[in-house]
Sequence to fold (225 residues):
Amino acid sequence: MNFTIQLVSSALKRLWVRGVLLAVFCCAGLPTLAAAAEKGDAEVYEFSADVVRRNTKENNRVTQGRMYVGRHGVRTEGERAGQKVWMIFKPEEKLVWTLFPQQKVYTVSEGMVIGRPPMPDEQESPCRKDPQFVCREMGVQAIGGRETRLWDISLRSSAPGGSIEPYARMWVDVGLKIAIREAYVDGLEVNMENLKQGAQPQSLFDLPAGFQKVSAPPQADGVKK
Fold:
């Protein structure tokens, strides 16, 4: 569950792109959309959306989830190993609650520095700082009625005279400054659908009543203490 945006190896560098939406959806780790919520000011872009993960090379296998981004944090709802998993990210408190609603238990991760990775045109982006990434802006496209900028992202081999291979395409929402669609050469696609901009209730980002704190996630045969 602990995706990190620190680019400390080639494998993690690849996750910079692959995780922009994937991390917030499929329970792969830290949120990528909490930076604005952390500011606590008028620049917070609040919205909700369905997130659909599809692999065109695996019989179009589809997994769906939901996410909410608000002034008080980020919430994702998905499924893992056949059970529902909710995650509530609290940037100001630097903590993450992982909730298992079927068992009414939750775990806590504390001391988490929560924020989104930079978009391709931002100064801290690997597109600007890491020569392994080759990023080209391909123009403006409309996705679900929203204006996006399409980025073509390739990876340069570290070997002498190495080739440049296509890796992914990313559609960055001009207004929200986040990727609302990603498509990878291995067939994986991640899309935000039914995106609705607007204030989100604080209750979405509060710990629900009746949940018991545990030290480890529940296992198939119960809760591991």
Helices lie at 10-25, 35-39, 126-129. Residues 10-223 form a domain with the outer membrane lipoprotein receptor (LolB), chain A fold (CATH 2.50.20.10). Confidence is low (pLDDT under 50) at residues 1-16, 21-42, 221-225. Residues 82 and 220 are 10 Å apart (CA to CA).
